[in-house]
Amino acid sequence: MKLSHLIKTIFFLALGFFLALSIVLSPSLTGAIAIQDVPNPRVEYGGWVTDMANLISPATERELNQLIDSLEAETTAEIAIVTVPDTDPFPSVKTFTTELFNTWGIGKKGKNNGILFLTSFGDRRVEIETGYGIEPILPDAQILDILNRHILPYFTNNDFDTGILEGTRALIDVLSGETFEGAIIDKDPFF
């Protein structure tokens, strides 16, 4: 009788330990972000901006939504703008961005003309993910130039609001066929 009582005690202690461990390591409690926890602004309110890191003012968010609405009406291209506190537990911001881009299906079906402009505040990193239909118009070298000329100068001064707005305007200029001038500067997309 004592042995069975001991086995039951050990079983319930182990069960309690594993339950406590799963709660402690739960992404929602540790601050880690899962892709499904990032609200899709198209589904939530018909917009283009999800600001989980609180880097964008309401006025700038309205302006971004208007700019992207106009771009979509003119070209059918889509730009989603997302800020997150960090991308833990993903191995990289790039991995998180690519998975979010694919999960949301940014861009028109068959055209693959979407862009995800993601800022991870805690990782101090910006990623711009493009669909295959955008790549000929906006190659990686041009994205790097936009980062270096229109986004990072503001981000290094903690002016994320302006950096996101100016970066979005530069992306829209390229997608709208505007002349884009800029020298490519070899820097990483860190701020």
UniProtKB/TrEMBL annotation:
| Superkingdom per UniProt | Bacteria
The TPM domain, residue ranges: 49-173
Q: Which Pfam families match?
A: TPM_phosphatase
Under PANTHER family, the record lists: UPF0603 PROTEIN YGCG
Q: What is this protein called?
A: TPM domain-containing protein
